[in-house]
Amino acid sequence: MRTGFDDDGTPIDELARIAARRRDLARDEEVAVRRARHAGLSWAEIGTLLGVSKQAMHKKYRKVG
């Protein structure tokens, strides 16, 4: 039976791995957004692809360009 935790560690270990994956995903998203903006995509297009509003994208990444 699956308990929601890896069999290889404690709940603390699993939470630490999740936190690390979130940091990696956030970094990857920022790079992808920067590349998309430099390629000419609008905030609305990027937001649609990521499932959020253009306002949310602009607010989160306004320094990206």
Give the total of beta strands. Answer: 0
Secondary-structure element pattern, one letter each: HHH
- Discrete helix count: 3
Spans where pLDDT lies below 50 across 5 or more residues: none
Distance between the termini: 47 Å
Principal-axis shape: elongated
Question: Care to describe what's here?
Answer:
The protein has 65 residues and is mainly alpha-helical. The longest helix is centred in the middle third of the chain and has 28 residues, at 11-38. It has one domain (11-61). It is 68% helix and 0% strand.
Descriptive tags:
65 residues, mainly alpha, 0% strand, elongated, single chain
Structural topology:
Layout: H1 11-38, H2 43-50, H3 54-61
Helix pairs in contact: 2-3
Summary, kept brief:
This protein has 65 residues and is mainly alpha-helical.
